[in-house]
Design brief:
Length: 197
């Protein structure tokens, strides 16, 4: 297995460390686990998009990538889930970009922007959860039991935070709005295993 002496021993790296790693070790791979539409909206140059659902289906193949891998999502939650799956499958030299794309962009990291700008999945979740809660509160003025709709959303959000999972996000990621045909997993795996020249 190819390893880099520049990778820190911890599993989380910040945006500045990622920039340094990319300069020092061209074999570092960046795996973006956001939805295809999020990736198309903006991504780190040279990164590979394997949405979290696709990653789950190909975890063993991805764990066998010989190069060091840095996982990226919007803010860190999905990258943490991907890290857990890949580490359990035996992947070493595996790291998470702390704060995800949001932190990368906040620190002035280069991005490739697509022609169509779409909302990040976490923003979609906040919008839908807020809308359902407002609807429940408004409807409760006519139907008192409708207040429990807002309560159900609150329980879901609390569970989501406690488990670092998001059922609503998982459902929203399957909508056509969030889908693209960009993830050629066979091509991605071949590219991930090639050495930089």
């Amino acid at each position: 297995m190819t390893t880099s002496t520049t990778l820190p021993a911890i599993d989380t790296i910040n945006a500045n460390q990622l920039r340094e790693l990319r300069l020092e070790d061209p074999d570092v791979r960046i795996l973006d686990v956001r939805t295809g539409s999020e990736y198309e909206t903006a991504h780190i140059p040279g990164s590979y998009n394997v949405p979290l659902d696709t990653l789950r289906e190909h975890v063993r193949d991805l764990a066998s990538v010989e190069h060091p891998v840095v996982l990226v999502c919007q803010s860190g939650g999905r990258a943490s889930q991907a890290h857990e799956k890949l580490a359990a499958a035996g992947k070493e030299t595996l790291h998470i970009l702390e704060g995800g794309m949001a932190a990368w962009q906040d620190t002035g990291g280069d991005v490739i922007r697509g022609d169509i700008q779409r909302w990040a999945l976490d923003r979609q979740v906040r919008f839908v959860a807020g809308s359902i809660s407002l609807l429940g509160i408004a409807a409760s003025t006519v139907v008192p039991g409708a207040k429990w709709l807002a309560g159900g959303v609150a329980v879901g959000l609390t569970f989501s935070a406690a488990t670092n999972t998001c059922a609503m996000g998982a459902m929203l990621s399957k909508l056509p709005y969030n889908q693209t045909d960009q993830c050629d997993i066979a091509g991605v795996l071949a590219d991930l295993n090639n050495s930089a020249e």
